[in-house]
Amino acid sequence: MRFFRLFLIIISLGCFLFANDDAPPVEYDYLSKKEVQYFIDMMVKKHHFERNYLESVLKNAKFDTDTLKRYTGKYVAGSTNGPWERYKAHVLDPVSLQKAKDFKKNYATTLERASKDYDVPVEYIVGFIGVESKFGEYTGDYRILDALATLAFHPNRMQKFFKNEFEQLFLMSREQGYDITKLQGSFAGAMGCVQQVPSVYRKFGMDYNNDGVKNPWDLEDCIGIIARFMHQNGWRNGMSVAVKTNFADNRYRGITPTHKSTYTIETLNANGIYATEEFQEPRAYLLRLRNDTHDDLWLGGSNFRILTRYNNATTYGMAIHLIAQSVK
Fold it and tell me: What distance in Å separates the CA atoms of residue 20 and residue 65, rounded to the nearest whole number?
């Protein structure tokens, strides 16, 4: 699962939270850069691509300022993952929650099959696909070639990672017969209804509807991908995911909230934090959601951490959880 853990660091979750409304990509002479020429040499020698093809693709690639600024300088909260108010407005609004119910009904057969195959709940599969693409409606309007060329060949926090993804993009396109210049996705180069970067798609893409094609834009294939992801990360049916606490003030200023490490229930209770319903584990993540006017405080179980292994943010995991609760 190493690729998934790298993937969650950078992916744009729910690409419709970040519509591409900045300046459009511009022409750029990538072929004049030495590191691009080294890349071309490597692809010819290692993967036996035609040099003329690589040069024609790189000549076509553009520079995307909007993409690059998300990964330069110090990380800025909200630049690669939405704040809680944005999630509430875009994936937890009444229209979106109705779409979740409709999706559960319309894809009931495939969802139930995935649930049985991988021993995971239908509702959380629905939650994942709702957050990632609003059930396939929003899969990204950035040209993947431009996004990954920009991030592979211009200095940024994740340049090594993105250079590998650029290599994987060529391999994926060749394997699947894609026109590399026409693929669209997120500003991080992620594709389809569960937003997979090329390396993740090549490793974990699956043909769950048995039509002979591993298709990242096919909702039934995406159902299988997410179900398998949850299973392989250790999902335990019947265990708590997230439980509300008794916190009832405007802003929380106690012990540090985090979805990356746990507190004992005794420690939480000693700090005045109690679950409002049964919580089955001896330790819990303390989760804070910052609304415009107040904070909400939740306890998260080991299953909650699995949600954030796909995208490393409390807001992301809680959005999935609340969609799941809405369609039970």
Answer: 11
